[in-house]
Design brief:
The complex is a heterodimer of chains A (about 240) and B (about 140). Chain A is an all-alpha fold and about 240 residues long. Chain A has ten helices and no strands. In chain B, about 40% of the residues lie in helices and about 30% in strands. Chain B starts with 5 loop residues before the first helix and ends with a strand. The chains are: A mainly alpha (about 240), B alpha+beta (about 140).
Chain lengths: ~240, ~140
């Protein structure tokens, strides 16, 4: 074996080890990214078939897969679910600052409501050498970083909801015209039952799931999951 | 390319989402108005063949079924109004509506271009328009 081949082999081994370490350290995000992409692809195939079923029943021409995945109908279907998921996390992050649920691992303990002290949060003078730089900063930078998770999740929620409304009005108007009915403007669509039905059917399910998790995690356990208390922890123990 | 920051990943996802929201190239509303105007002119000049050449397959079938005649003959027996020039047009996805001076025409995309799906349409409150020719 030549020196080049030996070097390549050792480089390949190092690359494999780096990849394995990366996947171990990022298993959760990698798994959910793959699940997301798989589910989105599956949704596109099912949605395409459903769209063409409707086209046939309306006596209209069927469309190709690429035309469907670039259509307003598909964009509205995707965005309406995105906005509700990001709203769910946005609300939960915000509400758990101030509200608690005794015994739930998803909550702080009673008495800990509020944003916490500088010492609790390792900010300003209490920042440690390993704290992010903006945690030690003052003023706007520190405020922004202290609320960055909420700001980003809230921004994605608002943008997704906006995208739902913009794509939704086009999809809605296409259906209106296919039914020989008048189209509506974007502002009119915002008070249409279609917009609120799409929105609220997602919101109610998210709120139910979060509320269920808060309550059930008080009394039920999943060994090994950080979303659960230890199996032997008492029901009224928050951690 | 190595993504160095989670926000960069978010930007990529947002860009993909924006791209998803953009429709593939579809004929314009102006093109729909052109087809509706040509259909109206064909009716006005009693050129049944030209009018039928602008119909969507479903509408053409309906005309033949309703009149018991070939489309070029049957469509002229339906007393469709002479619509006149287009005064307004809207297109959403694969559907369009064109308001002519004396008629309203609904269109759909067939074979990559606009085709007339309904004509001789008058408003009916919040209910669907009443149309002389419909595609289903």
């Amino acid at each position: 074996m030549s020196a080049f081949q030996r070097a390549s082999a050792s480089q390949r081994v190092r690359a494999f080890k780096r990849l394995r370490a990366f996947l171990r350290d990022n298993g959760l995000s990698t798994a959910f990214l793959l699940l997301f992409l798989g589910a989105l692809a599956a949704q596109s195939f099912a949605g395409h078939a459903t769209f063409n079923d409707t086209q046939v029943s309306d006596g209209l021409e069927q469309i190709g897969y690429l035309q469907y995945v670039t259509s307003s109908s598909f964009a509205a279907d995707v965005a309406e679910n995105w906005q509700s998921e990001y709203l769910q996390f946005f609300l939960y992050i915000a509400v758990t600052v101030w509200l608690v649920q005794r015994g739930s691992p998803e909550s702080k303990k009673p008495g800990e409501e509020g944003p916490g002290s500088d010492a609790d949060q390792n900010i300003h003078a209490s920042a440690t050498p390993s704290s992010p730089r903006w945690a030690a900063a003052d003023g706007l930078r520190q405020t922004l970083f202290s609320n960055s998770l909420l700001i980003v999740m809230g921004s994605i929620f608002v943008l997704s909801w906006l995208a739902q409304s913009v794509a939704g009005v086009v999809a809605f108007d296409e259906q209106q015209l296919n039914s020989y009915q008048a189209a509506v403007s974007w502002a009119e669509y915002l008070i249409e039952p279609d917009f609120w039905n799409r929105t609220l059917q997602n919101w109610q399910s998210e709120f139910l799931a979060v509320g269920s998790m808060v309550i059930l995690s008080v009394f039920l356990r999943q060994r090994g999951s950080p979303e659960s208390k230890p199996v032997g922890a008492p029901h009224d123990d928050a951690r | 390319m190595r993504i160095r920051h989670p926000l960069a990943l978010l930007a990529i996802i947002a860009s993909a989402a924006a791209a998803t929201g953009c429709s593939a190239a579809l004929p314009s509303a102006a093109a729909a108005a052109d087809v509706a105007s040509r259909f109206s002119a064909a009716i006005a000049t009693e050129d049944g063949a030209a009018a039928c050449g602008l119909l969507a397959p479903g509408a053409l079938h309906t005309v033949e079924e309703a009149t018991g005649a070939s489309c070029p003959t049957g469509i002229l027996s339906l007393d469709l109004p002479s619509g006149g020039p287009a005064v307004g047009d809207e297109a959403y996805g694969r559907a369009a509506v064109v308001r002519l001076e004396n008629d309203t025409v609904f269109l759909t995309i067939a074979g990559g271009q606009w085709a007339v799906r309904a004509a001789g349409c008058t408003p009916n409150g919040d209910a669907p328009y009443d149309c002389t020719v419909t595609g289903d």
